[in-house]
Amino acid sequence: MAAQTEARTQFSTAETETLKQFAAGDLPAFEKLFRQHQAQVYGWIVRVVRDTGAAEDLTIETFWRIYRARKRFDPKRSFGAWVRRIASNVAIDHLKSVRPEACLSAEAVHAFEVDLDLQQHIRRQTERAFRQLPAKFQAVATLALVEERPYEEISKSLGISVGAVKSRVFRAVRLLRKKLKQSGVEP
Amino acid sequence: MKETNDARFKSLLKQALRPISPELHRDLWPQMLRRIDECSPAKTVPWVDWVLLAIVVISNLASPHSILVLLYHL
Questions:
Q1: Residues from chain A contacting residue B31 (CB–CB below 8 Å)
Q2: Interface of B with A (CB under 8 A)
Q3: Are the CB atoms for A145 and B10 separated by under 8 Å?
Q4: Which of the listed residues A20, A76, B21, B65 has the most CB atoms within 10 Å of its CB?
């Protein structure tokens, strides 16, 4: 038990030292942190943006922002939480920059989808409607409804309250329902 | 009623959004290193050095004897 506590203390001290070195601009310390956290950051981003290629680039973008902001980082604070917050912002910025699929006219949609079965039609319409939601709604709805992440985790990652997360999910669903009704799908 | 609606939307979204694997299959460090190299500011000569060089050149032009003094001190 004592050995475990000692090992944990040593690990914590080593980690704090790495964080201090990183904040001072030490590249090997940054590499160590990058290798420790890259998979976790990628996993989080890809859950939000649903695009593996973009997620790799956005992981790099996240760490680039972290690297540039290293002087502002307080080594006493949680590096993981800081990274998660930046990764969420990067993912949301990406969703804002991606233009939703160009809206086709009703006739064009009908002509295009006349051969598709009903389920496929609903899926396509749902995805289209979802991609037209504001980026912050998309992110929260994906994490809460598709990935089923706890509200607490989402709130910490986005830097908003649990109440705000619930409110965004509610508004996202309401907006999605409205858009689906407009495109003739009754959810 | 609300829970039923949420469950229906969950199922609808899970079907509509493509499933993804959250696993990272390669090391991104080489890409990161490239990004750092590309975006780091280029090594520049500080302005103080340019001022000193200008002073030396001007004083040498104004009085050529100072070249000998400069060479003596180098």
A1: 56, 60
A2: 5-6, 8-10, 12-18, 20-24, 27-29, 31-32, 35-36, 39
A3: yes
A4: A20
- pTM of the prediction? 0.75
For chain A, the C-alpha Rg in angstroms (whole number) is: 21
- For residue A65, give the 3-state DSSP assignment: helix
Chain A residues close to B10, C-beta within 8 Å: 145-146, 148
pLDDT band at A104 (very low <50, low <70, confident <90, very high): very low
- A59 and B28: CB-CB below 8 Å? yes
The ipTM of this complex is: 0.75
Q: CA A23 to CA B8: how far, in whole Å?
A: 47
The pLDDT assigned to A164 comes to 96
B29–A177 CB contact, under 8 Å: no
Residue A102's pLDDT is 42
